[in-house]
Amino acid sequence: MKKIIYIAFSLIFIYSCNLSKKRNSNKDLVPQLIIQENYLPAKDNTPFTILNASIKKDFLTLTVQYGGGCKEHFFKIYSSGLFKKKSTPKLTLYLEHNFNEDFCKKLVVDTLVFNISKGRYESSDRIQKVEIEIDSYPTILEYIY
């Protein structure tokens, strides 16, 4: 009986370790915030609407709506990396949408997740909070790290 219990616990341990590895590898697949010095928003950005935005830990989640539905669309998020300094530093982010030449007319709602850890404010004040402003989204988000 002890042998069966030992084998069962061993299998559970091995299985949970494998799940942990899978979760960590998925974290690496999340697109990163791109910091580009002197960034200027794209003039030919394909139209979209941000319906909702939230930040949890280092991850910005956006619910977006756009026209298409026949091909995969691609999104990237950029910043110049320049902070507006006030009591809490503020960083502006810009979402770019590549419609992949999808001329279909369906209204698509999609959830996007980005790792924004590159948007942390480095200072000797030990500030661990940044206000995140997303271009074309009316609400300022608080990024606490």
Short description:
With 145 residues, the chain is an alpha/beta fold. The protein has one helix spanning 2-28; strands at 34-35, 49-56, 59-68, 74-79, 90-98, 106-115, 129-134, 141-144.
Structure, explained:
The chain folds into two domains: 1-30; 34-144, NigD-like, C-terminal beta sandwich domain (Immunoglobulin-like, Sandwich), CATH 2.60.40.2370. It has one helix and eight strands; from the N terminus they run H-E-E-E-E-E-E-E-E. With 145 residues, it is of the alpha/beta class. Mean pLDDT is 85; it is low at 5-25. It is elongated. The longest helix is centred in the first third of the chain and has 27 residues, at 2-28.
Biggest sheet details: 5 strands, mixed
End-to-end C-alpha gap: 48 Å
Percentage beta strand: 35-45%
Q: Which parts are unreliable, with pLDDT below 50 for 5 consecutive residues or more?
A: 5-25
Strand order of the largest sheet: 1-4-5-7-8
For this entry, what is the oligomeric state of its chains? single chain
What's the level 1 CATH class of the largest domain?
Answer: Mainly Beta
Quick one: how many beta strands?
8
Order of helices and strands: HEEEEEEEE
Give the helix/strand class: alpha/beta
The second-level CATH architecture of the largest domain is Sandwich
CATH superfamily of the largest domain: NigD-like, C-terminal beta sandwich domain
Shape, please?
A: elongated
Number of domains: 2
Helical content band:
10-25%
Query: If you consult CATH, what is the topology of the largest domain?
Result: Immunoglobulin-like
Roughly what is the average pLDDT, rounded to an integer? Answer: 85
Count of alpha/pi helices: 1
